[in-house]
């Protein structure tokens, strides 16, 4: 494991171009999707640009870029017009309206499976309850409906319930989602399911305990000879660990068993998400509830055969490596396919020009989204054609792909 304290330095040699592409796509989609949801929440599905300016910080739109210019870059999704007083308004195109209706249908179809995942997260938690505002951070990652706090949480009273707990400081009471019914058949990890077909009786009588399962690992091609280095990975893979669904109160923080169980918890959480990816700062909110290390980023970076951490921009993302083949998710649920439909309608007018390098991508890497039409000739990106993102500097990618095999070996010596 590297000795640098900066995440960017420690992960520089482990950068994976394909997953960086996924990160950039997500950033662009999240901005567009958020604005679509805001417009949809209005009674007539229209909103003045002046009022919509309140969302500037949410979508990280830096000044002096105009929100109206940003919206005009996606004419297949947004309609802009002025009223008689000269006030600029924005609504959605019929195609965008249809897409949001389709999203509602897909979320409803996904609801029962999602209820299972939320229940299993509660089962993994130490107190069998988690604050609702913490779960809200995962809303888009899991496919929760827009109004899940008001309606969806009451839809499955046999699984969980909403409870209010008085704040210790005398402030506003906290709302928790609390487990109602423990299900033995759901206390089986996704990794266990792959290795064994459980019978009905086995499912009903299953009790979580010690596991010794190997985690799928995926390294770049220059790691083909990795397993010749001291057998350190084999020792890690064979080491027993406590199931994420077992009581972890007795584990000593920093111990080998504690860390491997934490890897299992992260693996399970990422398996529940739509795209097998999460924003890392959302995970840190669950340190106490899920009994995971304070220095979670160090754990994720250490096990970069299992996870990949993208540090593009201000927010880090963690991926489950096994779920991707290049930049593509191997198994796509209907909600992921729906997202791709929206992405195909996010377009930019003008000439196309290849992006120079990763270094030009930051949390305002979508600079071309924010330029006015007069800037179009200088730099225009067309996300409808994937070649835009594939045109990154080959020299940069070559440098990023370099990895030290001995670094992996040393990372697992104390794993």
Overall 3D shape: globular
Strand order of the main beta sheet, please? 1-3-2
Q: Residue-averaged pLDDT, rounded?
A: 79
Portion of residues in helices? 40-55%
Given as residue ranges, the uncertain stretches (5+ residues, pLDDT < 50) are 1-5, 348-367, 370-409
What summary fits the major beta sheet? 3 strands, antiparallel
Number of contiguous helices: 19
Whole-number total of structural domains: 2
**Distance separating the two termini:** 10 Å
How many beta-strand segments?
13
Given helix and strand content, the structural type is alpha+beta
Q: Oligomerization state of this entry?
A: single chain
Computed over alpha carbons, the radius of gyration is 23 Å
Overview of this protein structure:
There is one protein chain. With 415 residues, this protein is an alpha+beta fold. Helices cover 40% and strands 11% of the residues. It has helices at 7-11, 17-41, 49-52, 67-72, 94-124, 132-136, 139-142, 190-195, 200-205, 232-238, 256-272, 280-283, 287-290, 296-302, 334-345, 367-370, 387-390, 394-401, 405-411, and strands at residues 46-48, 78-82, 88-92, 129-131, 160-165, 174-179, 210-211, 241-242, 277-279, 307-310, 317-320, 324-325, 328-329. β12 and β13 (328-329) form a beta hairpin. The radius of gyration is 23 Å and the shape is globular.
